Inverse folding.
């Protein structure tokens, strides 16, 4: 009997469980309700629900993480300029010129100036995207703190300010999504002059991106005096592309070792480099071969590999294998 009585006493002193915290939250909510009029309380709860829905659907942590990953990927892309003819008017029987044909007619000096403008636009785009993401992160944190605050006044007398903040963050998100797509380059002067009697179409310049080239770190391996390098294009396959593979010995010790570097053009996504020094560290860099359309390439993937040390000399090759007859 004493054991049963003691057990009931212990049950009363058990640590707080989930039900305890739920009861505590309900008690705080009931206390807040007593401080507000019924209509004010209803308005308060409705506006809290609006704010919670906005944070869940429009500005969720998962969505912000995806946007951060997209911007980080864009920072590793290469930016290129595309020259395309404008759409022909209805009934125009002249066939449009192909892009490579237009490039042959473009003034080289004017095109170089246009490439500098494209590089500046790409840099500005990346800077603005980072700034917009920072605004979204800060806005999410501020609204989350407001939702957790016990003060009901921002949801009552100060709700107009909250609505302005929600509208502002929605506009920031719209600008961010629109800026994720590289846009059109605007020309002040014509890049193509009329050639004789040939009627040339109006052209438009677009800033486009190519996905970054990255080493396959599982398949890229260094051996004693050679290395196998493999790489790939992020997201999309590398079809008919030319690459530039660079290698360099780190910390050369002699004048002869300073010659351990080079640039290798490669038309595939794998290459073997021979005549490396054993037990040394090499840095490898991969990129696309620079094309006429490249305007900005802020990032290149690099990989550091350590070659294996030289193995102790074993028996002569003639002595390896099965023993011969005496």
């Amino acid at each position: 009997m004493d054991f049963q009585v003691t057990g009931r006493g212990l049950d009363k002193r058990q640590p707080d469980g989930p039900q305890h915290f739920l009861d505590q939250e309900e008690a705080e909510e009931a206390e807040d309700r007593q401080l507000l009029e019924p209509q004010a309380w209803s308005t308060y709860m409705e506006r809290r629900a609006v704010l919670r829905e906005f944070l869940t659907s429009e500005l969720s942590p998962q969505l912000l993480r995806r946007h951060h990953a997209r911007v980080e990927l864009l920072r590793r892309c290469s930016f290129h300029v595309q020259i395309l003819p404008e759409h022909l008017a209805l009934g125009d029987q002249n066939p449009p010129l192909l892009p490579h044909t237009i490039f042959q007619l473009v003034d080289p000096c004017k095109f170089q100036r246009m490439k500098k403008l494209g590089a500046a636009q790409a840099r500005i785009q990346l800077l603005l995207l980072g700034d917009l993401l920072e605004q979204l992160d800060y806005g999410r944190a501020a609204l989350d703190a407001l939702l957790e605050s016990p003060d009901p006044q921002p949801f009552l007398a100060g709700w107009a300010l909250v609505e302005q903040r929600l509208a502002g963050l929605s506009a920031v998100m719209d600008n961010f999504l629109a800026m994720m797509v590289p846009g059109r380059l605007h020309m002040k002067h014509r890049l193509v002059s009329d050639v004789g009697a040939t009627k040339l179409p109006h052209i438009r310049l677009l800033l486009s991106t190519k996905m970054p080239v990255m080493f396959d770190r599982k398949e890229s391996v260094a051996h004693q005096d050679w290395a196998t390098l493999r790489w790939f294009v992020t997201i999309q396959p590398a079809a008919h592309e030319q690459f530039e593979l660079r290698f360099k010995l780190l910390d050369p010790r002699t004048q002869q070792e300073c010659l351990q570097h080079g640039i290798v053009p490669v038309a595939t996504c794998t290459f073997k480099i021979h005549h490396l020094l054993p037990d040394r560290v090499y840095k490898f860099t991969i990129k696309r071969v620079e094309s006429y359309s490249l305007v900005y390439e802020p990032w290149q993937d690099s990989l550091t590999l350590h070659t294996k040390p030289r193995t102790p000399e074993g028996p002569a090759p003639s002595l390896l294998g099965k023993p011969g007859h005496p």
